[in-house]
Amino acid sequence: MKKVIRFSKYVIPAVVVSSVLILSGLFPILTKGINFGIDFKPGLVSEVRIVPAAMELSYNGAATVSVEVNSADVSLVISGVGAENETRVYPFDQYKTVGELSSAMSEVAGLTAVAVAPQALTTGLFVNSASSPVLSSTVYRLFSGEKGQLADVEAVRDALSSLEDVSVKIAGEGASEVFQIRIGATDNVNIAQGSAGMQENLNFALSQAFGEENIAIIKTDFIGAQYSQSLIMQSVILVVAALFLIWIYATIRFKWDFALASVIAIIHDALIIIAFIAWTQMEFSTTSLAAILTILGYGINDTVVVLDRVRENVKKINTKKFMDIIDISQTECFGRTMITTVTTMLAVAALVIFTSGSIHDFAIALMIGMVSSAYSTIMITSAFLSITRKNWKPSDEVKSIAAEGTIVDFPGK
């Protein structure tokens, strides 16, 4: 058997280092607070597409004409003085291109329909929800996403750099791809006025960068303070529930102290990530929460492997000290722990190097969590078991096997 690494000699220093790291995270939390992302703060959430207009409509007449666009057709609702109240429907299966649709709509008296992209298909046309559907002399645009977005996510972030507390993500793919833009609001802002003001600032910044004719607001919501606080509480409950279920699983598979040791190890990892986020003031968003939950699952997998080896060695190793069994089990699993951690970190390192924004922060949190997970699997579980198994007696667990003569002496005994 190869030489046993005496990890148990470093248990007390490890506990001191972990305690200092975790407690030090309280200082920035108490002085600066956690830098919550706008996922957890009140603010504006808009889905925006930056695509060329396919058709432009305007109306000069006495009647009132409004536009309704859905997945199958475009409708013109005509009413008011000097007009017959009617609804004209233009199905996409009949008017397949924007050119055909604009020609048909131009037959309405006073309505001007200009096909900017006459060959574009009518299927998938959409409008800017921020524009009034009632036509007037002001140009009303219908958009087509056939050619894709005119900007990438980095260009949108640059365009909105003048606004405070902004997050930009890509949602959907292909023809349904949108930019999901979140703008945080202060606690004392009036919700109605704040929403209108932030929407106006958003529209202005995007129009300045990409042209008003290319901006389509798909959907806009304003998240209030009460909802954001509820989301924080739900996130805490989610993490606690995950820990509880892991503890139940580990208790069924092992004894109570093994189960508690594994849960303490992954709680340690979560607290290390939180301390790191607090010190660096990295934005804590839903991706950060996903990183913590990922590390909980990653850490318990590694810890269970080690504890499973401990359970096997309890029946095979003849020693009076339980920490001898811990040391040999950790030594046997050390190579696997390091190889698994390093190879996984190589994949995560690619995300750190080649991505930005929330994915970049997610990858950094994973890197910290993986290092902490490897460390806690070896040192934190050992520290806890050294306390619970201080008065361990080998005869309590191995006497039936000892009678068969299959127990081996601990190396170096």
Automatic annotation (TrEMBL):
GO cellular component terms, semicolon-separated: plasma membrane
Record-linked Pfam families: Sec_GG, SecD_SecF_C
Biological process according to GO: intracellular protein transmembrane transport; protein targeting; protein transport by the Sec complex
Entry keyword ATP-binding: no
Keyword Protein transport: yes
Annotated Protein export membrane protein SecD/SecF C-terminal domain residues: 211-388
Ranges annotated as spanning the membrane: 12-30, 231-252, 259-282, 288-307, 333-356, 362-385
Annotated SUPFAM superfamilies: Multidrug efflux transporter AcrB transmembrane domain
Membrane topology: Multi-pass membrane protein
Recorded GO MF terms: protein-transporting ATPase activity
Record localization: Cell membrane
Function, as annotated: Part of the Sec protein translocase complex. Interacts with the SecYEG preprotein conducting channel. SecDF uses the proton motive force (PMF) to complete protein translocation after the ATP-dependent function of SecA.
HAMAP family according to UniProt: SecF_B
Recorded family membership: Belongs to the SecD/SecF family. SecF subfamily.
Protein name stated in the entry: Protein-export membrane protein SecF
Originating organism: Candidatus Treponema excrementipullorum
